[in-house]
Task: inverse folding
């Protein structure tokens, strides 16, 4: 029996079936039977992955989308069974893969806690002593007998997080959910997770945020196409991974380019002065306004969208860049289309010609929707200083959302 | 995985309790619906079969005869309908927590079983009031109901995984249940010459016919059920429960990724 909190992946492979012509009704299945249009193909999400994690280690899983990070977490959580090889875990596992999933809107907070406890294997008697701690950590003592459908999404997530971490796990699985609730609660979540680390619990963490990875983990495993590319101290792996995925702007050509899934996309972008009139050159004190018409093809719309910009010198070097997430401005959400404005107030210390890049992303879901790199030429005038540009203020708002 | 697997009984009870609680939230009559539904069915069928198509008129206390069969049918059909979609209804849960997923369809059956037990008690009291005093044969009801529950669970397990692959399953279940209802001795008695002899013989191959015959003979007639009921019910329960479990186990790992 391995020590609680240890993990062993032994030559693990995981296959998905990918349908090229997906059928979900009997009629389609029958008609495809005759003309043989249904082809399914095996996609290897993981292939021959071997690693082990000892008790008390904090390991980050790095890699681009589709590399197998989430599959690895789901195997660890026991949700998937490996197609090949073996997965061994020991001790109690808490997974922060999706918070508050077992909650039923019609049941009260307390009823939901007991129900979720049962899903985690805790009887009423085991749950009872945990309830006060869960409620006070979530700050919901007064709302435990309220049906959770009346909770705000923040309250809902707070209760989910408090419950998931209250069970004193030996192994904690985190899938980029650290952004829960308001800033103060996020801080407490992080404190609790770092606290787990301090008490010798094992943590496996998937994140796209290098800073969070560096802070929490001492080891990183870089996955690519379902295989381990590199496994070692966090700093080494992180820098190798970063330099492979984001070659410095100097190294790439700075001709305009567009990329991304386009599930949320820019349909039209106008760069104007603060008065909505197009301008050729921005003088100091003049607001640079990016007015974008965006649309989404995602059914049910999209939310939590990060709208970012970056300003580059003509040689491609990035001078400055930020986004609404970083500056704690509201994230965008839209049902099908929206017109959004980003006002950038720059303090120009190095006048000249620049290239403005824009991006729509969702870092929580790890989506790159639409990037326009080195896309919009802007001229900044003013006195020459050093450093050349400073951000004075930036704000975001949705003017119209349909 | 050690020591983290939740107790199945605890999970089953919690999920069934949740299903019952949720069903009667914001409902004026609440729990009374477990009996009201079969009673409404009974009224409709009584009118149809004694006033319009006259065959039930000869049967003494036909409404009570109907009620005993209807509430067992109600358990069977509601369980199958609810459990067929039970995996799809809990997609997020299945994709983010590890637990024995077979409890989801089983909990749907368990929630309906609670209804059935309460309804059987009330109906037995009604029958007594109308002069059908319980005899020793009532003891046979207990194993019969348990066997029917096990059989229903078996069918539910298979339907719930198949429905993930093909959504048509839930539609088919509705259609098949309608035909099955008239093919089962729910609204008509057996052994009274109402059915042609060939149909009576074929009835022994209907998986649920045995259960209905036992319920009718123990509760309504107060007699011991014929032996074919037990043979049919036991054999079908064993086959369907094992086949259901096998179908679920075979499809489960793939279905989790499919959801």
Result:
């Amino acid at each position: 029996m391995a020590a609680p909190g240890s993990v062993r992946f032994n030559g693990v492979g995981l296959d998905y079936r990918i349908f090229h012509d997906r059928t979900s009704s009997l009629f389609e299945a029958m008609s495809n039977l005759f003309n043989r249009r249904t082809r399914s193909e095996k996609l290897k999400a993981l292939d021959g992955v071997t690693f082990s994690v000892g008790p008390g280690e904090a390991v980050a899983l790095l890699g681009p989308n589709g590399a197998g990070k989430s599959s690895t977490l789901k195997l660890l959580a026991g949700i998937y069974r490996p197609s090949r090889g073996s997965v061994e875990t020991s001790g109690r596992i808490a997974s922060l893969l999706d918070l508050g999933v077992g909650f039923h809107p019609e049941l009260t907070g307390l009823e939901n806690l007991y129900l979720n406890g049962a899903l985690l294997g805790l009887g009423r008697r085991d749950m009872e002593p945990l309830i006060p701690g869960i409620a006070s950590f979530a700050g919901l003592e007064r709302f435990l007998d309220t049906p959770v459908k009346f909770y705000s999404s923040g309250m809902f997530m707070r209760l989910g997080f408090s419950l998931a971490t209250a069970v004193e796990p030996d192994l904690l699985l985190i899938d980029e959910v650290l952004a829960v609730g308001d800033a103060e609660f996020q801080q407490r979540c992080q404190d609790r997770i770092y606290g787990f680390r301090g008490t010798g619990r094992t943590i496996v963490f998937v994140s796209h945020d290098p800073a969070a990875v560096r802070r929490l983990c001492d080891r990183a495993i870089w996955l690519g196409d379902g295989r381990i590319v590199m496994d070692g101290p966090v700093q080494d792996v992180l820098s190798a991974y970063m330099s492979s995925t984001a070659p410095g702007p100097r190294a790439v050509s700075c001709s305009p380019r567009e990329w991304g899934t386009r599930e949320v996309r820019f349909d039209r972008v106008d760069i104007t002065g603060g008065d909505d009139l197009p301008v050729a050159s921005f003088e100091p004190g003049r607001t640079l306004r990016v007015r974008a018409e965006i649309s989404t093809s995602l059914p049910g719309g999209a939310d939590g969208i990060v709208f970012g910009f970056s300003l580059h010198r003509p040689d491609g070097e990035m001078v400055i860049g930020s986004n609404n997430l970083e500056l704690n401005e509201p994230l965008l959400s839209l049902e099908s289309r929206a017109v959004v404005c980003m006002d950038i107030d720059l303090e120009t210390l190095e006048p000249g010609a620049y290239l403005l890049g824009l991006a729509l992303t969702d870092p929580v879901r790890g989506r790159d929707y639409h990037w326009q790199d080195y896309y919009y030429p802007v001229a900044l005038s003013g006195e020459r200083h050093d450093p050349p540009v400073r951000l004075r203020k930036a704000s975001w708002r949705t003017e119209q959302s349909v | 995985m050690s020591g983290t697997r939740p107790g199945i009984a605890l999970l089953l009870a919690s999920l069934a309790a949740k299903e019952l609680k949720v069903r009667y939230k914001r409902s004026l009559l609440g729990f009374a619906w477990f009996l009201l539904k079969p009673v409404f069915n009974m009224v409709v069928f009584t009118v149809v079969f004694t006033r319009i198509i006259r065959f039930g008129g000869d049967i003494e206390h036909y409404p009570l005869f109907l009620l005993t069969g209807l509430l067992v049918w109600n358990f069977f059909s509601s369980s199958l309908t609810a459990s067929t979609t039970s995996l799809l209804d809990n997609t997020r849960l299945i994709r983010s927590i590890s637990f024995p997923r077979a409890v989801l369809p089983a909990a749907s059956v368990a929630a309906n079983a609670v209804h059935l037990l309460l309804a059987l008690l009330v109906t037995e009291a009604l029958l007594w009031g109308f002069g059908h005093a319980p005899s020793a044969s009532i003891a046979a009801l207990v194993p019969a109901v348990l066997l029917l529950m096990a059989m229903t669970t078996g069918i539910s397990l298979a339907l719930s995984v198949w429905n993930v692959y093909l959504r048509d399953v839930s539609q088919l279940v509705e259609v098949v249940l309608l035909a099955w209802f008239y093919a089962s001795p729910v609204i008509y008695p057996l052994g009274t010459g109402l059915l042609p002899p060939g149909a009576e013989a074929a009835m022994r191959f209907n998986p649920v016919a045995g259960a209905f015959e036992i319920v009718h003979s123990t509760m309504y007639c107060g007699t011991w059920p014929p032996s074919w009921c037990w043979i049919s019910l036991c054999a079908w329960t064993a086959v369907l429960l094992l086949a259901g479990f096998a179908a679920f186990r075979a499809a489960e790992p793939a279905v989790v990724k499919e959801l």
Observations:
- Chain A touches chain B at residues 1, 16-17, 24-27, 29, 74, 77-81, 89-93, 95, 97-98, 101-102, 104, 106-107, 111, 114-115, 118-123, 147 (CB under 8 Å).
- Chain A has nine helices and 20 strands.
